[in-house]
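Q: What structure does this chain adopt?
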Amino acid sequence: MKNINRNLSLGECVVIYPPIVEKFNEIQLDYCCGGDRSLEVALEEKGVDIDKFIEDINAALEKFKFDNTVYVDWSEKSSGELINHIVNTHHAKTFELLKEIDPLMVKVFKVHYNHAPQTLTLVHKLFGQLKSELEEHLIKEEVVLFPKMIEFNDSLVEDEDELFKMGKADNEEGKEKLIKELRNDLEQNHGIKDKIKDVKKEHEIREEIRSFEEEHDAAGDIIKELAEVTDDFTAPEWACASFKLLYLKMHELEKDIFVHIHKENNILFKRY
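A:
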């Protein structure tokens, strides 16, 4: 596990040290949809002392390395394992939270409309848009995109094994070298491309990924607007228990979605 430096992207920083998201959230840095921006540029825009930030983060990272025994580095896991994790953890949590928030939203909107009509009308509208987009997006990932990714990976492995059997790599070291060359050539769209029969699938997957990234951006924009309208999901002093629970659940949804999008945009999608 390497240290954090100013040249890393925000997404790379989160891959290396997941708890950094708390610091990013404090200074409102978008590490999921805006994960390709460099740490240096992002911190400069926020007026943050870059050297001090990096020094503090790396000190915390060293402690994290020493103390943490359950941390999973998803960048080292297979795409299949990561996809299963995303579906069973983040997709499941999103569907669960949407189911919990929906009736709370209606209840609070109905009971407290006269207390804050403009705010609650906008929150109700934005949540409706977010719920619709998320449900459609997650289902399309599970039914369309993820199966295509897994199928493509399986076909790539079959081609690698075939080359091994043909004697073009007569030991494990040679096989690893050949696999690396194969993947590099595939990414550059030349060379062994002729050996891979489903290059067209690769192109289709990349095109689909771009459309899913655009949907991530759209959902992220709605969440940011919700956070702004609700003062970062801070319930007013006069709020009842249901109102406070509504904002708490929406904040929980926000945090999980940002981690979810980060794992897709900055780890999974970059493999294709």
